From TrEMBL:
Keywords: Membrane, Transmembrane, Transmembrane helix. It holds the Pfam family Peptidase_U4. It comes from Cohnella zeiphila. The keyword Membrane applies. The keyword Oxidoreductase does not apply. NCBIfam families: spore_II_GA. One of its GO terms (molecular function) is aspartic-type endopeptidase activity. InterPro entries: SpoIIGA. The gene is spoIIGA. The chain crosses the membrane at residues 36-53, 59-80, 87-109, 129-149. The active site is at 185. The lineage of its organism: Bacteria, Bacillati, Bacillota, Bacilli, Bacillales. This is Sigma-E processing peptidase SpoIIGA. One of its GO terms (biological process) is asexual sporulation.
Amino acid sequence: MVVYVDLVFLTNLAIDGTVLMTTAKARKLQPKRSRIALSAGLGAAYAAAMFLADAPYLYSFAAKVLVSVAMVFCAFGYGGPLRFVRLFLTFYLVNFATLGGVLGISFLLRQSGTPWADMSVTSGGGVALEWQMQLGLFAAAFGLSVWLFRGASASAERTRRLDAFVVNVTVTVGEDSWSCRGLVDTGNRLYDPLTRIPVMMMEASVWRERLPAGWTERLRGEAADRLVAELDGAAGEPYAWGDRLRLVPYRGMGTDTRLMLAIKPDSVTIGREGEPPRSYQRVLIGMDGGKLSPDGTYQAIVHPDLGLGFDAEPLKSSSRPA
C-alpha cells in the first residue's frame, strides 16, 4: 500500500479545521482563525506522524486523548474546568456525528451484493471490515454530514428557545374549561380599544364544539362581523355565548384594519412547569381560523401583560392595536 503523507496531512488539516469550526458554532464561540489553524495543524501532524514514525504508543488511547485535549486547548483556550470539559465533549460529539455520517453515506452508496464480502477474520480472531472511499466522495459525504449536524444543532437550539416561551393555558367559560399550549409573544400589544383589555389569540378549532356550525372553517376567509350579523338575524333560540362575543379591530403586518372575533371568558389560567399558575379575568380571546403553529407546538398566542415575566429575547409580533 502506498500512502501519500502530504495528502494525509492536508486532508486531516481540512477535516480537523471544519470540525473545530463546527464545535465553535455549536458552543456559540468565535475563536481566532489563527488558533483554529494551529489546532488543526496539530491534529494533521499527529495523523501524518502515525505513518512516519514507528512508535506504537502513538496509536494508544491515551495518546489520542492527549492530542484531542491539546487541540481543544489551542483552539479555544482553557477558561475553567467546566467550560473546557463541555468544549471537549462537544468536539468529540461533532467528530462522532460527522464520521458516522460519512460511514453511513459510503455504505449506502456501495453496490456490494452481500455484507460478508467486505468482512475478513484477522489472525487474532477479530473481524475486519474493508472500507474504501474516493477522496471526492469522502469530501462530499463529510461536508453533507457537517451540514446535517449544524442544521440539527440549530433546530435543537431554536426548539430550546421556543420552549422557554411556551406555557400551559386553561380557559374557563361557565362550567366548562379548555386547555392547550400557548406561546408568549412579548411583542404583541393588541388590546380592545374601548376597554384596554389585553387580547390573546387562540385557534378556533379548540372551540369547535361550542361555536356555531361551520364557524371554525369560515373564520379563515369570512369577515367576523358578518358571522355575528347572522346570529343577530337568525330566528329561534339565541346563541348561548352571544353576550360574550366581541369584535376587536386589529391590523396585521401589511394589511388594513380588520375585525377579529373574540370571546370574553370567565377566567384564563396560565402557568408553566415549576411555577405556580396565575388566573386572570380581564382578558379577551381572539379566534384564529388557521393554525398558529405549523407543527402544532402551541394553539394560543399569549399576551405579555398577563403577568408572566421572561428573561428572553422578545419575539416579533404578528399584530398590533388598530
